[in-house]
Write a structure and sequence with these properties.
about 375 residues, 10 strands, alpha+beta, binds flavin-adenine dinucleotide
């Protein structure tokens, strides 16, 4: 049983959460550490998750999703992340950022030819970051020049989750100078002039196939421009707003799994003739972790519910992403401490949770960028 969970769920929400928890515990958790250590991703498990309806929870049913809301997606992603963080990260990028981008900004042809594949278990990726431009995305240099009925893309994208195994990829490239000169394009597996190189030995998320992608005279038909030329950055920010809520929900799931593993170890492990869970120092750490998790979860719920009700949740999203990512890291760090030396070796998942959690104060906007966003809301309101 989880130590804490959501309150006030409807019957449908409870059922969805229970289904996702069962899948996470029975199908994901068992092999997650092995996949992490080997740096492998299981396409079979991914297809199984698709079959079970966990990929594209808020994508319309007509495109193969469940047609539910952001809150429902968060319920599912919290559970899956607790089972295997890399696996959940892949779903959040594939269905969330890539699928979500096409859903909100793509043409009917782009939606119909790609999204149903993504919800059936094909992999999507989404690439804005470059070596030269991470937080400052508007400075990106990858360029797309139109020649007749195609764009010729040159440049490179850094840190692309599932950059090795994607079937569909949304990228951002410059069609004009300035921040209004960035456009989004759809790249397909096997496109000539597009080459992925794995980023060996990432600290965490080792099963998520992080790669650098190079474009050398990559010819992309004009029909693969997403939306209008120059609208790329606005599209990216809109897509990231939902992405950050899902990512925060994943932080809750990882933190919860880390705390449960730590509590279970502490009850079994004895020192000085009693379980280490009896020691006040450890009890204090576990109580602090429980508070971190409960607070993060409430912030995720607030951000998701406002979005589902059609409201502007940008401030709540910034608060949730900032708090949940840092709280997750604190909880996972305490998890290692509670495990003692066993938290530091590959035998227990405590280290995997900590390494995986480490990315969340960086990805989809660093903590520092989010502090700026929070202050912008504070001073501009
Ligand atoms: C495992 C992994 C997976 C990723 N997956 C993807 C993906 O699928 N697609 C994708 O596009 N990207 C992805 N990223 C990239 C990620 O989003 C970037 O790493 C992140 O946006 C930060 O950019 P940067 O690494 O260039 O750091 P920089 O922008 O160079 O930042 C360096 C430091 O400066 C600080 N800083 C920068 N600007 C400011 C500011 N204005 N105020 C205060 N501090 C500031 C930062 O907070 C940070 O501490 C991934 C990264 C990792 C590690």
């Amino acid at each position: 049983m989880p130590l804490m969970t959501h309150t006030e769920l409807t019957q449908e929400e409870s059922t969805l959460q229970a289904e996702a928890r069962e899948f996470a515990q029975k199908r994901l958790a068992h092999g997650a550490l092995d996949r992490d250590l080997a740096g492998t991703f299981s396409c079979e498990l991914y297809e199984e998750a698709a079959e079970a309806g966990f990929i594209g929870v808020k994508i319309p049913e007509s495109l193969g999703g469940r047609g539910l809301g952001l809150f429902d997606e968060c319920l599912v992603m919290e559970e899956l992340a607790g089972g295997d963080p890399s696996f959940a990260l892949t779903i959040s990028i594939s269905a969330g950022l890539c699928g979500g981008h096409l859903l909100h900004h793509g043409s009917d042809a782009q939606k119909n030819s790609h999204i149903p594949h993504l919800t059936k278990g094909k992999i999507g990726a989404w690439a804005i970051t470059e070596r030269i431009a991470g937080s400052h995305a508007a400075a990106l240099e990858c360029e797309a020049k139109q020649h007749g009925d195609a764009y010729i893309i040159n440049g490179a994208k850094m840190f692309v989750t599932q950059g090795m195994g994607f079937d569909s990829l949304v990228i951002f490239a410059r069609t004009l100078a300035g921040k209004d000169g960035i456009s989004a394009f759809l790249i397909e597996k096997g496109d000539r002039g597009c080459r992925s190189v794995p980023l060996a030995q990432t600290l965490g998320m080792r099963s998520a196939g992080t790669a650098e992608i190079f474009f050398q005279n990559c010819e992309t038909p004009v029909e693969r421009l997403i939306g209008e030329e120059g609208d790329g950055l606005r599209q990216a920010m809109q897509v990231l707003n939902d992405g950050r809520v899902v990512l925060s929900a994943m932080c809750v799931g990882i933190a919860q799994a880390s705390l449960e593993a730590a509590a279970s170890h502490a009850k079994k492990r004895e020192a000085f003739g009693k379980p280490v869970s009896d020691f006040g120092g450890l009890r204090g750490m576990m109580a602090d972790s429980a508070i971190d998790i409960a607070t993060s979860r409430e912030m995720v719920v607030a951000a998701a519910r406002i979005r589902d009700a059609g409201g502007d949740n940008r401030e709540e999203v910034a608060l949730a992403k900032l708090f949940a990512s840092e709280a997750c890291l604190r909880v996972c760090d305490r998890g290692i401490q509670i495990h003692g030396g066993y938290g530091y070796i590959a035998e227990t998942p405590a280290g995997m949770f900590w390494r995986d959690a480490r990315v969340f104060t960086l990805g989809e906007g660093t903590s520092e960028v989010h502090r700026n966003l929070v202050c912008r809301h504070l001073f501009d309101s």
